[in-house]
Amino acid sequence: MEKAIKRAQVLIEALPYIREFFGKTIVIKLGGQAMEKGGITRSIAEDIVLMRYVGIKPVVVHGGGEAISGLMQKLGIKPKFIEGNRVTDKATMEVVEMVLAGKINKEIVALLNSCGGKAVGVEGKDGKLIVAKKISEEKLGLVGEVEKINPEILEILEKEGFIPVIAPVGTSKEDESLNINADAVAAEVAGALKAEKLIFLTDVEGILEDPSRPETLIPTITIEKIKRMLQEGKIQKGMIAKVKACQKALEKGVKKVHIISGKIPRSLLLEIFTDSGIGTQIIP
Ligand code: ADP
Ligand code: MG
After folding, report:
1. DSSP per residue over the chain, as a string?
2. Probe ligand 1: pick from 231, 236, 246, 264, max atoms within 8 Å of CB?
3. Does the CB atom of residue 168 touch ligand 1 within 6 A?
4. Of 6, 128, 209, 280, which alpha carbon lies 20 to 30 A from 154's?
5. pLDDT-derived band at 276, boundaries 50, 70, 90
6. pLDDT number for residue 66
């Protein structure tokens, strides 16, 4: 009995947060460890489905770098990167789209469904969701940046209770597929939907003063300080695209942006339904 009372108590403690976020959109970017071996872990899927059942509208955006390199290796295509961007020729783009929109996207959709959610996978071409243009055809080939988000398809899905799952493949004005950084897509989608929150689930606890020391986590950081850290070379690799995406999202009117670990059990629920706050919160 005591145990049951405790459980009821825990539920009621979430009431202020459920009230605050009821009917609001929260965009979740899944990357790194959130996607164990190319898939998403079950506990994260459960958290997302729970959000939906208490009236929050989650929208999922996923990456998939490792799985793409894996299949390319099997096909004998050598991955090439310039400043963190995958150089994408036509053959590579086919693999990128197959893995992102075909394999990973459908794995995430299936897992959300098996946890009791109603998930639908989309990519840039669906409803012209992500219109993109090439960054530099000469240097990077079919790598794009977002030109415009057409959020109608997401709004229709959200309204009917579905959880949209977005693969970061854009479509150009000439209907070519373009490979886009998933962090950037998450920021643009969150901006277009006027999301209440954008949460990046990644493989580190947040932004670290020293990436090799987890105890140097920065709980709250300003864009100003991020710029300084970038200049000092303290933010590197995949974190560069992520902090730039955070800045973009805030500029586009997203209220709160967080970078948290996908490795901490129930990190999404901790972030949304408690005031203990985890990871790094980015403020303007
Ligand atoms: P994701 O798959 O979630 O997009 P990335 O690998 O692209 O993850 O980016 C996260 C990585 O960024 C971390 O694993 C870490 O190695 C690196 N990183 C570089 N600088 C920092 C920093 N200052 N704080 C935290 N992580 C950093
Ligand atoms: Mg990344």
Report:
1. -HHHHHHHHHHHHTHHHHHHHTT-EEEEEE-GGGSGGGS--HHHHHHHHHHHHTT-EEEEEE--HHHHHHHHHHHTPPP-EETTEEPB-HHHHHHHHIIIIIIIHHHHHHHHHHTT--EEEE-TTGGG-EEEEES-HHHHBSBEEEEEE-THHHHHHHHTT-EEEE--EEE-TT--EEE--HHHHHHHHHHHTT-SEEEEEESSSS-BSSTT-GGGB-SEEEHHHHHHHHHTT-S-HHHHHHHHHHHHHHHTT-SEEEEEESSSTTHHHHHHH-SS--SEEEE-
2. 236
3. no
4. 280
5. confident
6. 80
Domains and CATH numbers, the chain: 22-282 (3.40.1160.10)
Please choose from 203, 226, 246 the residue to mutate so as to test ligand 1's pocket, defined by most ligand atoms within 8 A of CB. 203
Q: Whose CA is nearest to atom 17 of ligand 1?
A: 239
In short, whether 64's Cβ falls inside 6 Å of ligand 1 is: no
pLDDT in tens, 188-215: 999 999 999 999 999 999 999 999 999 9
What percent of the chain is modeled with pLDDT above 70? 97
For residue range 58-114, what is the model confidence (pLDDT) as tens digits? 999 999 868 888 888 899 988 888 877 889 999 999 999 999 999 999 999 999 999
- pLDDT by residue (tens digit) across 239-257? 999 999 999 999 999 999 9
- Ligand 1 atom nearest to 209, measured from its CA: 23
* Residue 136 alpha carbon to ligand 1 centre in Å: 24
pLDDT of residue 38: 54
